[in-house]
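User
New here, explain this?
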Amino acid sequence: MNSTVAGFSKLSKEEKINWIAKTYFHKPEIALQTLKQYWNDDQKLQQLHDEFIENTVSNFYLPFGIAPNFLINNSVRTIPMAIEESSVVAAASKAAKFWASRGGFKATVIGTEKIGQVHFIFNGAAQKLTDFFNQKKQLLLESTDEITKNMRARGGGISEIELRDKSNLIPNYFQFHVTFETKDSMGANFINSCLEQLAKTLQKEVQEWNKFDTDEKNIEIIMCILSNYVPNCLVRAEVSCLVSELKDKNIQDPEAFANKFVQAVKIAEVEPFRAVTHNKGIMNGIDAVVIATGNDFRAVEAGVHAYASKSGNYSSLSQAKIENGKFYFWLEIPLALGTVGGLTSLHPLVKLALEMLENPSSKELMEIVAVAGLAQNFAALRSLTTTGIQAGHMKMHLNNILNQYNATDAERELIKTHFKDQTVSHAATVSFIEKLRQ
């Protein structure tokens, strides 16, 4: 089947889904119905969603949940989470409740520095370029004044610009390494605009500098782009209590639990196969809040996992210890987030989520998101080192299995009663459904 199409972006939404339905589906009418049933009845709202990206044909929903009772820096927060994975919201809520009676979570922003780079090729002596840069640095910065004016008024802007010689890695490769403060915005467009202006000024000033010969004036700008690796845009979240205070109905021997918990974290520090899954659990909490607040979870993921590898080996993002009879659990994580700009002022649920969080600054949101990640990690490790991960997860997953098999209300009641004290598995659930239906 030839499935190429010319001028697809110019087709109307109706024409696009008709083409998709007829080209790829044996029953086009079912495909059309499925796509259209997720359209919003409010045409203005639907148009808003349609214009977020290109070639939209429908909406793809994620559940929007909340995790209450988070005591963070002595303030109680209810955290919005957008995620499709069962048990994540429940686990976060459970961890929040656990720590609320033990002093709560403490969070501190260590730094908010963001990075952008101008990558270029210079065919000449490195010292000549260094001399040029030292003489023209202030002029380069001033060339961005019109772009940075509003940001500077808010206390942000370009913090520093460095010339870095990378010619040992690639012949004649140099870069401007630029640090930024973007206050409450994530700042991607701002950073990229500044970088492109720096590149234009560089090329112009190089042409006019009489100490360069002809070949040296032929600077080639390769690209100007922000970096999603932000090791100095860092936040710390932590919990602590006396080991004896860890005791509850599920932790009868708090000392044994604490020791086992610390060992579990140490394993994730040294074993990459475990560290990846360990950190994925942290990101369950982080991504859910990042998405709910209209931030870029892909940028956050990329930066976080690079940070987990900063030692040269991929390792745990969280750490734990027992010291002088006290249990400590914490993480430090890079998070470049914004509370203004982008979807924050457009998406109705994002605006609602931020209002639910009492309209936090970007620093406050960094703290909240880091805490969500630490809570998720604590909940996962607590399950792993006590009952095992599947006991709670599969009970939460039970609803998905029941929906898959179109269980009636009566069947649901019988099935949930049966599995109240039984191990839930997909096979066992299906077998029980089949017995009921016989």
In short: The chain has a mean pLDDT of 93. The radius of gyration is 27 Å. DSSP finds 15 helices and ten strands in the chain.
